[in-house]
Specification:
homotetramer, alpha/beta
């Protein structure tokens, strides 16, 4: 086994790519050999991302310069939705791939087109991808060459719900997911929705009942319970913090189920998952998980009402951290390598 | 009719009281004669509340100094929960009262004690109070001497739901309310939950499935539909903005109901309500209503899913502004007097 | 005297213009007849600025449609720097003008070009303009047809320093102004410097020792003391609040001068200025003046060190509020008409 | 040489202590054996500091339980000012000490009492302490048993100014330091100044011209230039970010000195200092250094004006990070051990 692998980040100037670069620079089993970014091609990383000043001498290459891929063992694709599906058919065959976009997450071609609103020209590659929700698909990821890293909202909903599906615990026709995201989820390009004077004291809903993470969530939950009829309500909101997702999931318990049953099920499901922390009858807080790869899950029961709270950092467990966790699994490194040190004091 | 009434604010050093003072100082039909505050008694208002420097020469009196009430036409009670119920039995009989606390909102004695966790020593006065949700109980408020001003979360849920109850529009057994509040809702005393280093980038749930506004909400919705079985799920959250409440309400539509039916009902219900603004198939934003008395209501339908979004300023429509609106109705002033000028540009 | 004047706002979709519209809609002596905005021409104001929904039926016209000016008594020019100087030569002669841009503030042509980096094609109109710092140039403004509204940073520095110049109080060769602005000062267009993920927890300096408000400040201070040699150090910073400017001004006292002398001078200078509030040996706070037309000035002395603190709302006293104050003076309305009600509780 | 040292943190429940615990848990050369906190004594760390859930099983001991010190090689004192001076005389003699409070920083007894307002009962221990500004006193720290870790504001001013003292570069009688701190600098106890509704959009000055870091700054600068007459102006401000200090330092250049001379001097002075990053003719940003041990220094010259900008994280380089850096130097570890991985992407 190689001591260190060579990795590249395609689309490294956005927030997901930069967070990935940060994590990989501190990862003992990875050399970051190549980073690319279209607008910044030719520039030093530290000129575009001043936080990296003094930390790396890397220079951005062009995304289309595929020769740079030859010496890599692994490439992370961090470009906007729609770019990976054009690139993947042209990748060298030896290369492992972790795609952080939504291009290859969905196994149903029609659902993809319905929610992403565009043709998929390389859908034949979809079946090569394993869905990279580490805590649920760990065994498949171990064998995977291509991994589709889950969406940030999807990760939060799936980690809260997948353990409970098909276990005779919750009513399967009443699931409401109310998700709130920080501003870094909108990416590094300035836009109206992240204009400080309007975001700093604002709160609103967007993509009304129609977020593109819905099909991957329903796919994951149906994997957990193939008899599930397959409908949940998801609404996403913009909140004025920078990092994090907080999702409140509302269900109805089946007769005779109480908070202890939920606890037992979560404990069993996550017993080998170091990055999930259970907070019994309590709420997590996005600030406790920010800058870390943790997902904190709390819940409360009142009669037949169950509410589940899931908090994670959208850039770490919701993107770059989970991508590294997937890499660790794919290359048979310790699952927490390079990630366990990501902690936060306040 | 008197040109101007004399009003007092009991408990004027907290955020609700201070917002009320601000509004009343600009109200053409009100003289603010007395303000009280226990800890600040004897001090100039502007020494405790520096924003008021240059705006008023009032000095805080003591809450227990009831002689100060004699020359008033109206008193606003803005003290913490539990203080009004001790004071009300001792008020002069000529005095009109608007109570901003939760002491007299709930008509069912057992529900009061269950949710407020304390005995109610003057519950016989409860029946003298009209519940002051202006848009719903306007006619009763016109005749009222005592008004119980609604809670901030309650106002948001009730304005979104009351119009739809008993109209054969929504399923009555599936109502989830996910509410988010700004930090001013926790009051003016510094505490852990509003410590800037932890609130600024935090988001969490609190009072898990057990908020004390639940009984007044259920009471209001049962007034609207006496056949309603009476259960909804309410979860409140702390968000890192200062002013505002944003509540997302999830329901299932009955067969044949669509977004247009909801619109028609809201338009009819609110047609004489200048402080409710309807935003068809769109989300409101707490920043659009902050510093104003508006409640903005938006909604979206997807198949049988209905989500309603309600945004208001917790200190204005959720407290002081609605109290002034109630005063205007009680004294037969124009309902928007002193409130219409509360606007916001960014 | 006319009961009401007819006013228009040229460039009303930015933050300065929108704040002005908000104030004028509540002003008892003004009809807002026309608002214009290039990108939004033809649209309802409330479609572009959702806060105004329900408050006005105005529709944006095009900036170039000068016919709209004929029925106006007064036009506010709120366009970006450089647009007023093209428009002013074409305005109808009956029209009074308040220009919020920097185009006509500076009497020295070379200084204008040095700091604004462009030719001034209509500099012959400059001499028609009075510099609209109300507390200093009130008598000239009363007679003015054209007023150049001061810059936001300039207002803060000038109100702190102008009273002290030429009074034998401070050393004239040691003046350092360290100014901090909120994000609304960058305007309503989204940009990197106001991207929420970067502004929310960021703080930095910009326009290093080279801000374009420097020449108008030096001009104003030399008006106050024609013997002043004319050099101060000004550095501006971006802070993560939305509204407000806080400027700390450092000087050295002359022999025998103490804090009481400073107080006496300020009190005398501002005794007829309702919008300046003096806070003796204390610091003001931008949150105390936000959403108001107040400028709060505090100061402290330690031996020969004097620090002066000036806080104001950049959109109100730093722009739209001062423009309305100028209008009130020009039209001989009460100076605080439509402005005194702008207050803030928290 | 021991592979790992045993360390304890006295006063570990505050922000400085918690940040230190976070760093030390990831430090390859340290076992954290003991943490203490008075109010939390007996409780699990993770119960008081929920971020640490899953990261440590440590339980807080009592501060007075000195037996716990016996097995340690090093203790960090992170208690409030005034507690260390009572504890230090009772420490076991084998123990190395890094004190994060202000108790032993100042060599002049009268200056200590003047600025800290209390008697110093164990001033005879002061001479055992080395002042722990790593980049300036590195050689002395190597030999030290006791280190007084610098204050956060002091670190920012001293790193900006110490290199320039006594070099014939700047006028020594005109130094103004305008410093802005985030809310975490006020500690973990909720108080008015850090109450979110007032801090979130507030900005103000405090400790007017009278901050207690002044004597340690003047002491450090006089170490650099014994001929310096010893007076600078320091004013601190509260800003609405959480982490970070940004200090703007204003000087006058001596004849013939330009920006290049400043650059050369800084480059020479900091050439072996991995945690100082120089940003030529540019401003740093507190967000670039937050969660890291970096100090970023930028500067600009305009004629004879020099402004220096210093940004650091008050909890890391301004407290816990510098303490670990001091530990690394004292124990002859690599200076960046356990600190180089503290990076930030956004």
């Amino acid at each position: 086994m190689k001591t260190k692998i060579n990795a590249g980040i395609w689309g490294a100037s956005g927030y997901g790519g930069a967070e990935l670069l940060k994590i990989l620079l501190g990862h003992p089993r990875v050399n970051v050999l190549e980073v690319t970014a279209n607008e910044a091609a030719g520039r030093l990383v530290a000129d575009t991302l001043p936080q990296f000043f003094g930390l790396t001498d890397l220079r951005f290459g062009a995304i289309n310069d595929l020769d740079r891929l030859n010496k890599l063992d692994l490439v992370f694709l961090c470009m906007p939705h729609g770019k990976s599906k054009a690139l993947v058919p042209n990748l060298p065959s030896h290369l492992k791939v972790i795609d952080l976009s939504g291009d290859y997450r969905i196994r149903d071609h029609d659902r993809y087109e319905e929610y992403y609103g565009s043709k998929h020209e390389s859908f034949e590659f979809q079946s090569k991808f394993v869905y990279g929700l580490c805590e649920v698909y760990r065994d498949k990821i171990k064998e995977a060459g291509y991994v589709a890293n889950p969406g940030c909202f999807a990760t939060s909903v799936e980690l809260g719900l997948a353990p409970l599906m098909g276990q005779n615990l919750i009513a399967d026709d009443f699931i409401v997911c109310d998700a709130k995201t920080g501003s870094s989820g909108s990416g590094s390009k300035a836009k109206k929705a992240t204009h400080h004077p309007e975001r700093s004291q604002g709160f609103w809903a967007y993509k009304l009942l129609n977020h593109q993470h819905l099909p991957e969530i329903e796919q994951c939950l149906r994997d957990a319970d193939p008899t599930w009829p397959g409908h949940l309500t998801l609404q996403v909101h913009s909140a004025p913090f920078v990092r994090g997702i907080f999702t409140s999931i509302y269900c109805r318990l089946k007769d005779g189920v109480d908070s202890g049953h939920i606890r037992k099920r979560y404990e069993a499901f996550f017993k080998s998952s170091e990055f999930v922390r259970l907070r019994y009858q309590a709420s997590p807080n996005v600030s406790w998980v920010s800058h870390t790869n943790f997902t904190d899950i709390g819940w409360q029961v009142n009669h037949t009402d169950l509410v589940i709270f899931v908090a994670l950092d959208n850039l770490v467990k919701g993107a770059a951290g989970q991508a590294v966790q997937n890499m660790n699994i794919m290359f048979h490194f310790a699952e927490g390598e390079g990630l366990s040190g990501l902690t936060n004091s306040v």
